[in-house]
User: Fold this.
Amino acid sequence: MSFTDEEVERYARHLVLREVGGPGQQKLKGARCLIVGAGGLGAPVSMYLAAAGVGSIFLADPDTVDASNLQRQVIYTEDDVGLPKAEAAADRLHALNPHVFVAGYTGAFDAESADELVTDVDLVLDGTDDFATRFCVNAACVRHGKTLVSGAIGRWTGQVGVFAGRPCYRCLVPEIPPEAETCVAVGVVGALAGVIGSMMALEAIKLITGAGEPLVGRLTLYDGLAGESRTVRVGADPECPVCGGGA
Assistant:
């Protein structure tokens, strides 16, 4: 897989980076990533993956851009209000890097569409804000043997984890919390989406290129108010309803 002169100049800082180099950049160019949720996390994730040269990016989000999104979903502008997020984001990513293929899916991500969307990609990134969709994404990834990069934010805190088979996301969250908080209900500081979304993109780049130690089976917790983070291991649940004995 060769690069044009424009691509060589564009990816110059990657090409001289020891852990990426030419082979790593070729892996990025050949990679196919699905990003579920083109909101606060999906915005920085998709922008950094497009800028990094990930060859094919698929965005799945059924929502339209709302004025309240602009505080943190930096991929959109005032002109995008009312437009389908997946389509507006795809246009922005193509403008950012015309060397990558970007497609948007505006239907719901559910059990019916999950298999079709997940089957032909190499990596799935979940930046959605409801547990039902997260569970659906996780189940599809386990069924098809796809690695999942999962992120979540609320108020001033966020988390990033990588799940590759066992443990899976349902090992971490067995059931939907009875009083699950949403950003609509409790708020979220806009810049936090950039922090966690960028961390998700970084994990994706590590996974694709084989650089460093991705957060497989681990979860990084970030406290924006305290400026602190810690990483914990996620144990596999023997009775997990998706990847364990309860399946």
Observations:
- The chain has a mean pLDDT of 96.
- The chain has one domain: 5-233.
- The chain is about 40% helix and 20% strand.
